[in-house]
Amino acid sequence: MDGFARLKEYLSKHRKTLFAGFLAVLLTNFFTLLPPWFVKLAVDKIEAGTTARQLLVYGFWIVFTTLVQGYFRYRMRQTLIVASRRVEYELRSDYFAKLVRLPKSFYNHFKTGEIISRANADLEAVRNMIGPGIMQAANTILALMGSFAFMLALNPKLSLLTLVPIPFLSVAVFHLGRSIHRKFTRIQEQYALLSSKVQENLSGVRVVRAYVQEENEIHSFEKISRELVGRTLSLVKAQALFYPVLYFLAGASLLLVVWVGGREVMAGEMTLGGLLAFLLYLLNLTWPAIALGWVVGLYQQGKASLARLEEVFSAEEEPVGSAGTVQPESRQGEIEFRDLSFGYGADNHLVLKNINLTIPAGQTVALVGRTGAGKSTLVSLIPKLFPVKEDRLFVDGTDVTHHPTGLLRRQIGFVPQEPFLFSATIAENLAFGLVSVDTEKVARFSRLAGLENDVTDFPSGYQTVVGERGITLSGGQKQRATLARALATDPKILILDDAFSSVDTDTEEKILSGLRQLWKGRTVILISHRVSTVKDADLIAVLEAGEIVERGTHAELLARGGYYAELYEKQLLEEELERI
Asked: Which residue spans of the chain are classified as CATH 1.20.1560.10?
């Protein structure tokens, strides 16, 4: 589906409002065309000799029709602009809904600032196209047709003279349209870059200050901003050039009509009232002709923005799985990888190679390996954060591609390597996966995650607002908060991706001792670089360059003398040096 086909669906929902708006446009133009005709009649009567009473009647009709056209012009704006605002609301809502349904891989190619700029500037451009754009386009067409029809009725010869500038106008509009489309696309691209720059600096403000890069970032922002100003001025210059051309063409038409029409009046071939009415109709065409350039600009800007929005709307969403394939009550938590290989990107460079691993329900399995070995990627496949080929990954004996995504993820508690908290209270963050904030449950799992003592020290306790991305909390506090959030959902499968890296060994041991009782009956997958974290696991798998090179219990792997044994000896030595 292209952008205009999608937009047509939104507009069809408001066809009654749009119809009322177009009717108002029609009536506005009808009553706008009547006053010049009454002026003609009045002036002709003055020339022929008339009474003040008759002139008063014509004056009344001129005032009446002007007031009526003013009312319908108000209704025209009320209906069409309101309809465009409603479409904008629906588009923005659907845009956000689309974003939350897109797979994680989508966000590897689009920057956050670019996505936000499309939600703001591009949606606004589309609204202008379907609000003021449609309204003025309809108004311009009807005004041109209506005025020209009356002009033909008054004097066909003069009417044909007014068409002389049309070829020049057509050429100007064609070149303006192409120029605006190209320039506006470049503006939106630069605006997206500017938004990304702001977003990155606000998110990474601590890093910027830690490396004393404030001035460099300010200069970098100014450079991007200057380029945006330059591109915007280029568009403004193109549009500004168009209006003097239109005024010149309108003035040329007016000069021809006054010259030729004046001679016809003097020759008795046309009445003075007819010439005056003709000039009024010609003046009525001036604004529609000027508005034509504005409408072309709105259309080209909206067209460019619609294409950018369509890139998001047409992106492939996450597969939802086969509804009803696996019942929630039958889930046990067994996981099996069969000859699984996986790669990112278009080149499909393999990050995981021929993974064969069975994790029985209720067991604890640890994944160990060097940075970049593929541990985080492997566990990310279980909740379908990345697409997996069929017959390669099974949960409870069923191919993961057949599991309904929402139901599967509700059974998984995931603590990511990089903890993320929302700009909300601690209680709201911990209860994020629950239907509502359950204070008692939140406090219980906060205690298990070793966070409760920290929370009680805060002035507002669990009602403390943690700031954007949890900026007011330390790294260890954020990790413990995300652990408590995962536990609160009572998952069958718990995945801890290096969840204790920001806490010290003593705190980690306290948390683990409190969790071991809770882990009974759950499938737990631990990723850690610390042997102390994984030594009690039922099975430890060692990954190297995307392949499982060792597997066994803590004692079995030590006896084997491989990478795991080297890691254990290294950490024993580090602990001994710390004691010394």
From this structure: 3-313
